[in-house]
Design a protein that fits this description.
The chain is built from 5 helices and 14 strands. It has about 280 residues and is α+β, with helices and mostly antiparallel strands. The protein has a 4-stranded antiparallel β-sheet, with no helix packed on it. The chain has a 4-stranded antiparallel β-sheet with strand order 10-9-13-14. The longest helix has 22 residues. It is elongated, with a radius of gyration of 29 Å. The mean pLDDT is about 90.
């Protein structure tokens, strides 16, 4: 059994002692299990012949007793190898004989993790990865060649992606760069999907632009699916592209970025419709 995989994102850190750039990581997509969910997990392991209300009562009574008695007598209390509950004094003192002053100092409970809380992930525990290792790939704009100033697309026009490190490597490695296009019409629930071939030949301006030719991509797919996608019978709604790229570095990890846009004729008919309102599917 292998552990779950979670993505990390890196943020530039501050290191005043060195000019070298440093980065800190955080897990993405985290959420907090509530009290009942945690208790369900405990009961679900099947080791305890005990009800959830009884388990909850025992846990709360144990912790409440530890807190109350520590606040009463100041002694630390240890719960196995999991944690130590203790008091600490907060606030600074002016001299060796300075007295505790409730206006300047306070006692506070502190939870100190012990050995069991410091266990490191094992073979079957959580694994993390950085999706954006390598040059950062980004798609900033999508537009038609004939209307670079518009956010909507012209049917039949080549499509342009603008951004950074928009490379499509053609090297025959196990991980392949790709550009997939989904063409959406008014009647079809899902997109007509096609793959753009040509790779590096579509890339220009040092990886800042990819030009997707209409005829051999969307145009060809429409011909194959003409009965379903005939623009005269089935209004062209939108296009979504999914770019999987290593940013031009063969050893970098594959990054996935998407861009979406409506066709101008359809959007003129429904000007209040937003990209976020579209029921996107596939890709």
């Amino acid at each position: 059994m292998s552990g779950a995989k979670r993505e990390i994102k890196l943020k530039k850190g501050v290191n005043k002692l060195s000019e070298k750039e440093t980065y800190t990581a955080r897990l993405t997509g985290q959420y907090t299990l509530d009290y009942d969910q945690v208790l369900d997990e405990v009961i679900g392991r099947g080791f305890l012949n005990i009800s959830k209300p009884m388990l909850k009562m025992i846990l709360e009574h144990t912790l409440d007793t530890m807190v109350s008695n520590t606040l009463k007598d100041g002694n630390s209390r240890r719960l196995g190898d999991y944690f130590m509950l203790q008091l600490e004094v907060k606030g600074g003192f002016d001299s060796p004989d300075d007295q505790f002053d409730a206006n300047r100092h306070k006692l506070a409970l502190k939870l100190r993790p012990l050995k069991a809380m410091k266990r490191k992930p094992g073979r079957d525990d959580l694994k993390v990865y950085n999706r954006n290792a390598g040059p950062a790939v980004s798609i900033n704009r999508i537009y038609s060649v004939s209307t670079p100033g518009n956010d909507t697309l012209v049917f039949g026009d080549d499509i342009v992606l603008e951004g950074e490190n928009l490379f499509l490597l053609d090297d025959p490695t196990e991980v392949q760069d790709s550009l997939t296009i989904g063409y959406y019409t008014q009647r079809l629930r899902g997109p007509i999907v096609c793959e753009a071939s040509g790779g590096a030949g579509m890339v220009s301006d040092g990886g800042r632009r990819i030009t997707i030719p209409w005829a051999p991509t969307i145009g060809e797919s429409i011909k194959i699916n003409w009965d379903r996608a005939d623009p005269a019978k089935n209004a062209s709604v939108a296009v979504m592209v999914a770019l999987r790229s290593r940013g031009g570095v063969p050893t970098a990890k594959l990054q996935l970025h998407r861009a979406r846009a409506f066709f101008d004729t359809w959007h003129e008919k429904y000007p209040k419709y937003k990209v976020a309102d579209m029921d996107w599917a596939g890709l």
